[in-house]
Specification:
It is found in: Cytoplasm; Nucleus. GO terms for molecular function: small GTPase binding; tRNA binding. Pfam families: Exportin-T (PF19282), Xpo1 (PF08389). The protein has a two-stranded antiparallel sheet. By secondary structure, the chain is mainly alpha-helical.
């Protein structure tokens, strides 16, 4: 068995390239570890190495101790003693021979000894620590180095098992750990601390270190010192701290901190940190900090951080950080009475001030990783000052004096500068640096809160230094881009400070305040001196344009003025910078494309009032960027070009970004004073796009994806250009301009007709026509026929190819028709067109929805069907909201369509268990609208321009009113699942609509009073001196529909006549919510 174990371990350790054999070895090892007697075989092997002459490999030894570790908790007391004796024998053998085994193996032995301590001390063997200390101690008072190393390593393991608060333990383990710590405190602690003191003094002394030239021995000495320091730091959290707080220990710690060995130095800092973390009352903690004298000692070291090992510098930074945080926490946690004691408060404050030079030194270090170490202290320090801003009872002026805050803020700002070794082009390093900057900015925020005047002065000085210093001394030398970037960043911070009013200025005074004036002055100074300040670097370019965009109101608000600055000239300079190589013509793609967007936003928001020649020059400049040249780099669609998903197509080029430029040009066209010039500009931009579409139409017989995208992109750019023109003034809608709109519409419609089989082109044409509609709706009656002709052609093409449309396309078409109703429905020709469209559209949409519902196969399709249903109901509702319900009863065909709509809404309303609640609510809303306008069979709203008393919906009582009220009964008194009545969404969404529907039916043909009217009328009714006409309602109920409702309540629900009368009376008097509560009480 022993031979098998050794062989398996060697194979598993990587001495075989046969993966199958290695897997077999691993499986054997796992079975062996889990066996109950495996540890005994390991004992045999270990004994053979100490008693016999058999040599075993290091890997096998390591495996043996792993097996021991797993079995220790399950062994009986007798078996634990057997195991302990075997490990002791092995340890004595190693120590006697003086064999320094590898660190990993010594750690493994210490792990087993530590577990034996945990599981034996309270039951069967209480002297493991004494035994190990006995092996380490020699008769002459010195220490055996190897035995001391095992002793110290075991102590570290013991703490990790019983004292480490980070390890989650069960209740029994916590109880045992508590007992073991008590045992150590009572029986072992004095000897342990003495051994630490003596061993640390011995192995850290120069004499001991220099006594051996053997590298292995020197390394062992170092590990012992590090182990002792680690143990002291660990145990300090739960032993009597005074045992290690004496001058001798402190001298030893200082010796280690100034050692030539950086690893010892690092561990010494960790020991100090652990001691500082000892939980104790504030007063005691201040005594501890005072005793340690760390602040003064670290200052006396006069370390040049740049010349020490980076890891040690980090450790020192952590030590300064923790020392500072502990001092701040003393102030935070002390009682008011303690802090009123001047000596106590001043001592603590002095300890903080003592480490400030060190904190500044680490903060300004070139390495961010080092600076980050002190950030938590800076945050804690500033937070304390913020919390005590209004504390007039206690004097903390020494902590927030101008000198400290000025130095700190200056160093924070300087730390925000890009390092000289960073070129600012690597995205990953920029992201990391921005993380550091955001933390620094939060510190700057705090200082602004603490002392806004000081902060303002420091910021203005830094901005002037980084942006304008070379101007002030007449130096034409180009500045370092890092300085310019930092200056712009600080100016941006300054602007955000004003925007968020961190200085707590009265809101009405912000724009006229001195800080705001200074900001605008500096912004104008940058623009005026752009050629010398604005270095072409992506970070500077983006910062500048983002800053301009944030403060576009400077150019639009006439109340914002800067002395000596002509805002129009500044605006022209900004526009010039935009259309330069610094802006939209930048060679950097990220800058170029972002600037295209910002240029569009700037033009849109400022609508610059400049001379026509300036606009023409702007457009000419930008026009050179409008040629779109793209190629398809990847396509994951199938070969069917009729149904292309553009999200699965990857292409090169700048099409999406160019859309911003096209919209910007459209806006610029509307700003020209000479209508002819604007028209010429528009024609010049459109002509290449028209040519593109002509080529596409001519090449349709050789259709491919690239051709489809060419047509799609051209159409979207036309639509985007038209979108920009939407803000055109009425006096600019000349015949020439209208002619261009007509030309656009004809090109789009011809393209749609030829490419109607291809979804991507259909969608792009729809986008163009929607954009055109907003312009065409502004035309006077002289040109209204054009809108009718375009709409008629679009309706015809769409209706003829309706079955080709996808659900989102149908939704978009319904939205388009809704817009026609809204903008142009009062035009008689358009009304006639819509009247002829309505019935076939309703029938096609209903059939489309029914077919789509039957074919639902996944959640995406289900969502699309729901969205289409909502769009259809929204379309129906828009007919009523635009006061055009007369269109439903203008002819028999439309009346049949109306019946179809009513039945569909009734069906949606009743299917509340199957349908989405939002759909049920929308259907009820449409029934309310129809009952409101057509409940009497005739349109009674005077706002319906085309209402005709001769047009009657004969079946209104039966199909609309009667069925609507029956639906109300089905959703309340006859509801199939009463549990839904407890659902807040159902109550607030559906039941409230049911109440409104019943109220609408009861007031059919009359105005339906709203909640405010009802409250007002009820208040009159309850008045003590009610006049005879004081209870006259603004509107009266419809006797016929109320009787119809009463009959249904009596016959279908079982109401008595008096109950039905009371129900209908309350319906006329109560608000919607109150009546819903009343109705729920009846149901329950």
């Amino acid at each position: 068995m022993e031979a098998q174990i050794q062989q398996a371990v060697e194979i598993a350790s990587g001495y075989s390239n046969d993966n199958s054999l290695k897997q077999q070895a691993l499986e054997f090892i796992q079975q062996f570890k889990s066996s109950t007697d495996g540890w005994k075989h390991c004992l045999t092997i270990l004994n053979s190495a100490t008693v016999g002459s058999d040599a075993i490999s290091l890997n096998l030894k390591f495996f043996i101790f792993q097996v021991f570790d797993e079995r220790v908790p399950t062994l009986s007391d007798d078996e634990k003693i057997v195991l302990k004796d075997a490990v002791y024998s092995y340890l004595k053998y190693i120590i006697t021979k003086g064999t320094i085994e590898p660190v990993f193996l010594r750690n493994a032995v210490a792990k087993t000894l530590g577990l034996l301590f945990v599981h034996c001390t309270l039951t069967c063997y209480p002297t493991i620590i004494k035994d190990l200390l006995g092996m380490a101690s020699q008769a002459d008072g010195n220490f055996n180095a190897l035995a001391t190393d095992y002793y110290v390593k075991t102590l570290v393991i013991i703490h990790q098992e019983i004292g480490d608060q980070m390890i989650i333990k069960d209740k029994n383990d916590i109880q045992r750990s508590s007992l073991l710590k008590d045992r150590i405190r009572d029986n072992e602690m004095i000897d342990m601390v003495r051994s630490w003191r003596q061993a640390l003094g011995h192995f850290s002394s120069p004499e001991t270190v220099d006594s051996s030239n053997d590298i292995e021995t020197k390394a062992l000495f170092r590990e012992i010192v590090i182990g002792i320091l680690t143990a002291i730091g660990f145990y300090s959290s739960w032993i009597e701290i005074n045992l290690i707080l004496d001058q001798e220990f402190l001298s030893l710690f200082y010796r280690c901190l100034t050692s030539d060995d950086s690893k010892i130095q690092i561990e010494a800092t960790n020991t100090f940190i652990n001691i500082l973390h000892k939980k104790m009352p504030p007063a005691k903690k201040l005594e501890l900090i005072t005793f340690l004298h760390l602040g003064s000692f670290l200052n006396q070291m006069q370390l040049d951080v740049k010349n020490v090992k980076f890891e040690f510098a980090q450790a020192l930074a952590r030590l300064c950080r923790e020392l500072g945080i502990e001092c701040v926490q003393v102030l935070e946690k002390s009682s008011h009475e303690e802090l009123k004691y001047d000596q106590f408060r001043n001592t603590c404050v002095s300890k903080i001030l003592e480490i400030m030079p060190l904190i500044f030194k680490f903060l300004e270090n070139e390495y961010d990783d080092l600076s980050l170490e002190v950030f938590p202290f800076i945050g804690a320090y500033l937070l304390f000052l913020e919390r005590n801003l209004v504390n007039e009872d206690l004097d903390f002026s020494a902590l927030d004096n101008d000198q400290i805050l000025t130095s700190l803020l200056n160093k924070i700002i300087l730390k925000m500068r890009y390092d000289d070794s960073d070129d600012g082009n690597d995205e990953e390093s920029i992201e990391l640096f921005n993380d550091v900057r955001s933390k620094l900015a939060s510190f700057q925020d705090s200082i602004v809160v603490i002392n806004d005047t000081l902060s303002l002065d420091v910021m203005i000085e830094s901005i002037n230094t980084f942006l304008f210093h070379h101007l002030d001394r007449g130096d034409n030398k180009i500045s370092n881009w890092r300085d310019i970037e930092l200056g712009l960043y600080q100016l941006n911070y300054y602007s955000e400070m004003l925007r968020n009013n961190k200085m707590n200025l009265p809101k009405t005074m912000i724009n006229s305040s001195r800080p705001y004036f200074v900001f605008n002055e500096m912004l104008c100074k940058i623009v005026d001196n752009s050629t010398t300040i604005l270095v072409s670097h992506p970070l500077i370019q983006l910062l500048f344009f983002e800053l301009i965009m944030k403060h576009y109101t400077f150019f639009t608000n006439s109340n914002i003025q800067v002395e000596g600055i002509n805002k129009n000239e500044t605006l022209l300079k900004v526009l010039k910078i935009f259309v330069s190589n610094f802006g939209v013509f930048s060679e950097n793609p990220k800058v170029k494309f972002r600037t295209w967007y910002l240029f569009y936003r700037f033009i849109k928001l400022t609508r610059p009032q400049v001379d026509d020649y300036v606009i023409i020059e702007l457009v000419k400049s930008v026009t050179t960027l409008l040629d779109f040249d793209f190629s398809i780099t990847a396509n994951k669609n199938n070969s069917d070009l009729h149904d292309v998903d553009l999200t699965l197509v990857e292409e090169s080029g700048s099409f999406e970004n160019q859309m911003y430029l096209f919209e910007a040009i459209g806006i610029l066209v509307t700003l020209t004073n000479d209508e002819n010039k604007g028209t010429i500009v528009l024609q010049g931009v459109l002509q290449p796009l028209f040519s593109n579409l002509e080529k596409c139409i001519n090449a349709i017989d050789n259709i491919n994806l690239e051709l489809l995208l060419q047509a799609h992109h051209s159409l979207l750019l036309i639509g985007t250009l038209v979108k920009g023109v939407e803000g055109i003034r009425a006096n600019q809608l000349t015949d020439k301009f209208v002619g261009i709109l007509e030309q656009i519409s004809q090109v789009v419609l011809i393209t749609l007709e030829r490419f109607d089989d291809y979804n991507v082109v259909r969608e792009a044409c729809s986008f163009c026509l929607v954009r055109l509609l907003s312009l065409l709706s502004k035309l006077d009656t002289e040109h209204s026929s054009m809108l009718q002709d375009i709409s008629s052609k679009y309706f015809t093409i769409t209706m003829n190819g309706f079955e080709k449309r996808k659900m989102p396309e149908v939704s978009n078409f319904l939205n388009f028709v809704s817009q026609i109703f809204h903008f142009c429905g009062k035009s008689e020709p358009v009304y006639g067109l819509l009247a002829s469209l309505l019935a076939p559209l309703v029938h096609k949409v209903v059939a489309f929805i029914n077919q789509s519902t039957e074919n639902i196969g996944d959640d995406i399709t289900k969502r699309d069907v729901l969205e289409l249903q909502r769009s259809f109901i929204s379309f129906l509702t828009s007919v009523s909201s635009d006061n055009m319900d007369s269109i439903w009863i203008v002819n028999d065909t439309n009346k049949h369509a109306l019946i179809t709509v009513i039945n569909l809404m009734l069906s949606y309303s009743c299917s509340y268990l199957e349908n989405d609640i939002s759909l049920v609510k929308a259907a009820l809303t449409e029934l309310i609208a129809l009952n409101n306008s057509l409940g009497t069979g005739q349109v009674w709203h005077k706002n319906d321009t085309f209402k005709n008393d001769n047009n009657v919906f004969e079946k209104a009582d039966e199909i609309l009113v009667g069925n609507s009220f029956l639906v109300c009964i089905e959703l309340t008194f006859k509801i199939r699942d009463k549990h839904v009545l407890k659902d807040a969404q159902f109550r607030n969404g559906v039941l409230l609509e049911v109440t409104r529907l019943m109220r609408t039916i009861s007031f059919a043909g009359n105005y339906v009073p709203d909640a405010n009217t009802l409250r007002r009328e009820n208040a009159k009714t309850k008045g003590a001196n009610e006049q005879t006409n004081g209870n006259d309602s603004v509107s009266i109920q419809n006797a016929s529909t109320c009787q119809q409702m009463a009959n249904i309540l009596i016959s279908q629900v079982g109401f008595t006549p008096s109950d039905a009368e009371e129900f209908i009376h309350r319906l006329s008097q109560a608000t919607d919510r109150n009546f819903t509560k009343y109705m729920l009480s009846l149901i329950n």
